[in-house]
Write a structure and sequence with these properties.
Mean pLDDT: 86
Distance between the termini: 59 Å
Largest sheet: 5 strands, antiparallel
Shape: globular
CATH topology of the largest domain: Immunoglobulin-like
Number of domains: 3
Order of helices and strands: EEEEHHHEEEEEEEE
CATH architecture of the largest domain: Sandwich
Helix content: 10-25%
Radius of gyration: 24 Å
Length: 207
């Protein structure tokens, strides 16, 4: 890497043609941009690219729904999509296939999840889900109006967040699975603030 001494390039940084200017310790250096062809990627790098593309294709479906609604609130400004992608990466195998649905995430935020949070399919009515939790007596009353939310579906398609109408203060709920989703294998539950200005992380429950 050559150093630039004076001249028009002094203080520049960034790419220009086939070279890149690098500013380091107040000095400008110039180096050529490495040429990388398709065959120069290692097998591990190629698998990472395949996996990243698969996760990105999955996440982009929520670019105008979950991400502006929930994830832009949870992360730094303008970083909601990045946070959503990063959170869902562990659910995908190295070959890009969705392998562990329980590792998917549809909500994030600072609202707390309750203690002893449980959910199971109703024995009497399989299209309903019994949900129970224990409210922390030390938790601020401001959280008592948080509403229980649900996301459910199949690996290739999920519902939008569904408001159950049940408040955190109740401590239990009997919720209906949406039409067409009665045989799903699991649900993701979380809480939304009364004004929808904050959310909790979600938790997966197999049914």
């Amino acid at each position: 890497m050559a150093q630039v001494k004076g001249g028009i390039a002094q203080g520049l940084s960034g790419k220009a043609g086939g070279v890149v200017f690098v500013l380091r310790d107040g000095k400008t250096y110039i180096r050529s941009i490495p040429i990388r062809g398709k065959n120069s990627w290692s097998p591990r790098q190629q698998m990472h690219r395949v996996r990243f593309k698969a996760v990105n294709d999955y996440c982009i479906k929520y670019k105008y729904s979950l991400i502006p609604q929930i994830w832009n609130l949870a992360g730094a400004r303008g970083r909601g999509y990045h946070q959503f992608l990063k959170a869902n990466m562990p659910a995908f195998g190295l070959d890009g296939h969705l392998e562990e649905v329980e590792k998917l995430h549809f909500s994030a935020g600072k609202l707390p999840l309750p203690q002893h949070f449980k959910a199971k399919r109703s024995d009497d009515t399989p299209s309903k889900v019994e949900v129970n939790w224990l409210n922390d007596t030390n938790l601020s009353q401001v959280y008592s109006h948080d509403e229980l939310m649900m996301v459910t579906g199949y690996p290739d398609h999920r519902t939008a967040p569904i408001a159950t109408g049940v408040l955190r203060s109740k401590g239990n709920a009997l919720i209906d699975l949406p039409d067409g989703y009665e045989t799903i294998g699991g649900i993701y539950l979380f809480f939304a603030a009364y004004k929808r200005d904050g959310y909790s992380p979600d938790q997966y429950f197999g049914l």
